[in-house]
């Protein structure tokens, strides 16, 4: 079960990156081109949020149930987790930054819904979605990084 969830979690990151880029690019075009906020702009943010929420559910299963790098790391290693950069990355940094990014996307979407001007909707989308995407990209265990050692692109 762990390997299946980890594979889905790893694969879903690509949907998140693509949806996040789509949402940010649409918002950037809206801000720079002063275009109306359309249903496609709304859907870009919606898909970004849906993929993130799905990723969160899978990530929580990994963190609390199947992964030795989540809660089990604290149970077996105690405070030593914080002294080991690899374990700290997954047990603390990865999940914390992901939750902050997801919260930013939800807050951004709520502010976009409340905004009345199209320019304001685009600007809000751009700010919240871009910050969330940057945070997410900083804590994805990419192959070639210390946290991504032994992990593939998919």
Please give a structural write-up:
The chain is an all-alpha fold. The protein has five helices and no strands. Helix 4 packs antiparallel against helix 5.
Brief summary of the model shown:
By secondary structure, this protein is mainly alpha-helical.
Per-chain topology:
Blueprint: H1 2-33, H2 39-66, H3 71-77, H4 85-114, H5 118-138
Helix pairs in contact: 1-2, 1-5, 2-4, 4-5
Strand pairing plus helix content: what structural class? mainly alpha
Q: Assess the beta-strand content as a share of residues.
A: under 5%
The first-to-last residue Cα distance is 17 Å
- Share of helix, binned: over 70%
Task: Kindly state the number of beta strands.
Answer: 0
User: What coarse outline follows from CA principal-axis ratios?
Assistant: elongated
Q: Strand count, sense and closure of the main sheet? A: none
Number of individual domains: 1
Question: For the CA atoms, what is the radius of gyration?
Answer: 17 Å
H/E element order: HHHHH
Oligomer: single chain
What's the total helix number? 5
Mean pLDDT: 92
